[in-house]
Design the sequence.
């Protein structure tokens, strides 16, 4: 019990540290550049406390539940060596963790709002929820696919730089035929997917797999998975924009 | 009261988001590994924390980080404020007049990245692996400069309304060229740093900043110009870390001329 409290406090300090630079920069701008009183300070302070509390609980819970189970499974599967189950696991891991990614939930909702305001989709609440959900499913599908490609690459020992560079050429190519409205959201979704939930589990999978194969460098191969996971969402969201 | 109702709604929503991964992990544990979990109580409590935490975080985001980003964008582009600082009317403004925007973007990108825990961990690992050639602070500052400059340049793009993919294509071209000449060991690290810099707190804030800017600057639309800052924030650290690696090698050569007589391959591996 005492140990959990210490861990919880440590996570709370970590969340505070995440928020601190934002508070410092914004307050200095308010105090020294604008020099005007800000409206709604109380609701912002409450919201700030919710962000810190929420992030703290979220990360504490991840460490308690998701990370040990996920890492244990990744190692067990890598040791077992069944390619089929490994690929299925990689796909579901990428898909599941992306659906739960907080930054993506927030961005998708915002993108739906903007698209509705500009008249690109219907402005009903339902149309917005559908659009945001479609966006998140697309990104989740992309990250799942990225991990499958990444795992096969580690097993087959294909060259990472060639695949990554080829991938970005493909991205630029698809950009030219994609509708302009989707381009910004698509490029942003590449950076959003690789955060709190996905990275630790994906790294565990890559490192576990690479260290169970001979003559592979766990650091290089573990990183390869994350590089793919920030590339495929761009491509998939661009295609989502073309299709929808 | 209203806040409590919203929070409850968000917590229920996040339970739905977390459920698939919980079910999938449980099924795999049972079927593939063939063992049931010994410490299922701890796991269950952990998932409860994840669900409640995600819900509260999203409420806080809605109440604070999104409004803050938009408020800053609004204040920084307010015609009265711009008139005070550059002495021009709104119709006569050119992109240079928005210098407070670039300064704010630089400060936010730099400071949030410097405090990013994932980056601190990566830097320590890199320092240990390189035998001290990559400094912990050097790498952190390199990545933070990359993010700051990236977000700043992203704001410049929003204000001028130039197409996003020109910048991204040019950026990746630079990355490809640097990859060819940079020391081999820094390459994976550099590619990695693009992903770890944009934390869960920073992403919503700079997204709101971009959307707010595109709404406030005359002639821009949120749909066409508002997104893209996160893409900039993940691309530029790759460039700055590769540059940092090249600098480290150069410095090594200048301070220790004897290395010139060695095999260049070996020299690179020693340097990093």
Sequence:
């Amino acid at each position: 019990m005492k140990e959990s409290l210490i861990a919880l406090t440590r996570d709370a300090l970590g969340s505070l540290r995440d928020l601190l630079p934002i508070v410092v920069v914004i307050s200095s701008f308010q105090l020294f550049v604008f020099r005007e009183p800000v409206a709604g300070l109380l609701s912002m302070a409450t919201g700030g406390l919710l962000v810190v509390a929420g992030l703290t609980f979220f990360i504490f819970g991840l460490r308690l539940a998701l990370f040990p189970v996920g890492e244990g499974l990744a190692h067990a599967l890598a040791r077992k060596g069944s390619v089929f189950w490994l690929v299925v696991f990689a796909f579901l891991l990428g898909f599941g963790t992306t659906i739960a990614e907080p930054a993506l939930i927030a961005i998708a909702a915002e993108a739906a709002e903007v698209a509705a305001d500009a008249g690109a989709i219907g402005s009903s609440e339902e149309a917005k929820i559908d659009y945001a959900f479609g966006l998140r499913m697309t990104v989740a599908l992309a990250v799942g696919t990225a991990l499958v490609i990444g795992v096969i690459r580690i097993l087959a020992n294909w060259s990472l730089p060639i695949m990554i560079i080829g991938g970005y050429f493909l991205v630029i190519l698809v950009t030219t035929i994609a509708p302009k409205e989707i381009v910004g959201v698509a490029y942003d979704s590449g950076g959003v997917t690789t955060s709190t939930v996905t990275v630790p589990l994906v790294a565990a999978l890559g490192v576990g797999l690479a260290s169970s194969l001979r003559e592979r460098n766990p650091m290089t191969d573990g990183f390869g998975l994350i590089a793919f996971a920030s590339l495929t969402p761009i491509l998939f969201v661009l295609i989502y924009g073309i299709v929808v | 009261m209203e806040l409590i109702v919203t929070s409850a709604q968000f917590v229920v929503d996040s339970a739905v988001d977390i459920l698939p991964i919980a079910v999938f992990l449980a099924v795999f544990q049972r079927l593939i590994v063939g063992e049931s979990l010994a410490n299922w109580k701890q796991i269950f409590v952990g998932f409860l924390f994840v669900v409640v935490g995600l819900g509260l975080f999203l409420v806080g985001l809605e109440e604070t980080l999104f409004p803050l980003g938009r408020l800053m964008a609004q204040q920084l582009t307010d015609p009265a404020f711009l008139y005070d600082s550059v002495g021009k009317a709104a119709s006569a403004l050119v992109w240079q007049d928005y210098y407070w925007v670039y300064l704010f973007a630089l400060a936010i990108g730099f400071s949030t990245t410097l405090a990013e825990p994932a980056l601190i961990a990566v830097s320590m690992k890199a320092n240990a692996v390189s035998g001290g050639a990559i400094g912990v602070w050097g790498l952190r500052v390199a990545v933070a400069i990359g993010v700051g400059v990236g977000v700043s340049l992203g704001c410049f793009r929003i204000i001028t309304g130039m197409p996003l993919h020109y910048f991204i294509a040019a950026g990746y071209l630079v990355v490809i060229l640097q990859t060819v000449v940079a020391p081999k060991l820094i390459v994976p690290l550099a590619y990695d740093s693009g992903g770890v810099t944009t934390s869960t707190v920073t992403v919503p804030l700079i997204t709101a900043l971009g959307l707010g800017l595109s709404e406030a600057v005359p002639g821009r639309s949120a749909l066409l110009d508002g997104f893209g800052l996160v893409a900039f924030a993940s691309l530029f650290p790759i460039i700055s870390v590769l540059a940092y690696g090249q600098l480290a090698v150069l410095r090594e050569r200048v301070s220790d001329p004897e290395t010139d007589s060695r095999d260049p391959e070996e020299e690179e591996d020693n340097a990093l």
Observations:
- The longest helix of chain A spans residues 41-80.
- Residues 1-64 of chain A form one domain.
